[in-house]
Each structure stands twice: as C-alpha cells, then as structure tokens.
Design brief:
mainly alpha
Length: about 140
C-alpha cells in the first residue's frame, strides 16, 4: 500500500532516501520499497519515521491531516493486541466477520489478537479505517 506522505515528508525536508535509510538503520533499497508501497514498513520503523519528523503515525498514513505528534507512549505489542480485541468487541464484530473484511484467514487474525504475530501495516491501516480509530491509539502511542 502506498502512503504518499512518506515520500512527501522526506522531500519537503530536503532529504534523500539514503538520508532516511541511515536514520532508520535500513538499506536504501528497503526504504525505497516502503516509500513506493511495494513492501510494508514494519510498525517499529513507522514509529521511528514519525518520531524523526515529529508527526503522528495517523498523519503519515493519511488518516489525519493534523501533523501534531501527541504520542505519550511507544509502540507496544501487548497494547496493540489488547486494543485490536477491545475495538473489535466494542463494535460487536466477530473474528470471522473481521477476517473476511480484512481478507485474511480467521486464524491469522486470531494470531494478531493473541499476540502470536504483529498485524502488518496495510492490515492495521484497513482495521483503523473500518473502525474509524487511530493507528497511534492502536499501537499504544495515545
């Protein structure tokens, strides 16, 4: 999934892909793939990216036009797991229905809620859009 603001923030700050890849401690071609949207940026690197530019993750992903970084915490896998379940239950949505919406097997989604694996960025983005919640919130940053 392509998130235009990833490249926009870099360009607006007169930085090269090499500059950002050094900051994030990844190869330039890896960063390039994230910027092009051909590979998912890991959530911890997305957080580092947002922190570097002092913007919210929701802004980076285009879920908000508010650049302000109101994060009070850091990405926490356990909080993500609990909040996925909390939001799903609050909206009376079954794992089966949600896995269908997110186009994944129910066992895969269940693994995210049970902490066996971390939801990839594109799926987390789709989850946030479907339930109209903040990715910063889901990741434990709010």
């Amino acid at each position: 999934m392509y998130f235009k603001r990833i490249s926009d923030l870099r360009i607006d700050n007169d930085l090269t892909q090499k500059d950002i890849s050094k900051t994030l401690n990844v190869p330039r071609n890896t960063y390039s793939k994230w910027e092009l949207g051909t590979v998912n940026m890991p959530l911890d690197k997305l957080e580092e990216f947002a922190e570097y530019f002092n913007v919210s993750i929701d802004y980076v992903l285009g879920l908000s036009d508010d650049k302000k970084n109101n994060s009070k915490g850091k990405f926490d896998r356990e909080i993500l797991r609990r909040r996925l379940k909390k939001v799903r239950n609050k909206n009376n949505t079954s794992e089966i229905k949600l896995s269908s919406i997110l186009k994944m097997p129910q066992t895969t989604y269940s693994g995210y809620e049970n902490g066996h694996s971390i939801m990839p960025l594109t799926k987390l983005y789709n989850f946030a859009q479907y339930f109209n919640v903040s990715v910063d919130y889901l990741m434990g940053r709010k």
